[in-house]
Design goal:
Helices cover 44% and strands 0% of the residues. The protein is mainly α. The termini are far apart.
Length: 54
Amino acid sequence: MPQLNPNPWFIIMLLTWFTFSLLIQPKLLSFTLPNSPVSKTTTTKPTPWPWPWT
């Protein structure tokens, strides 16, 4: 069975992985998000829930 022979497929897998990690990934990571995350501090204290049975 040829699919059990790792000789040609291992090189193809390595070349694909290196292509992704060295060429494609830096280009994808260079994009900036339109809304950068900011830390929001909550200044209001939440009010407790008015339970009817208390």
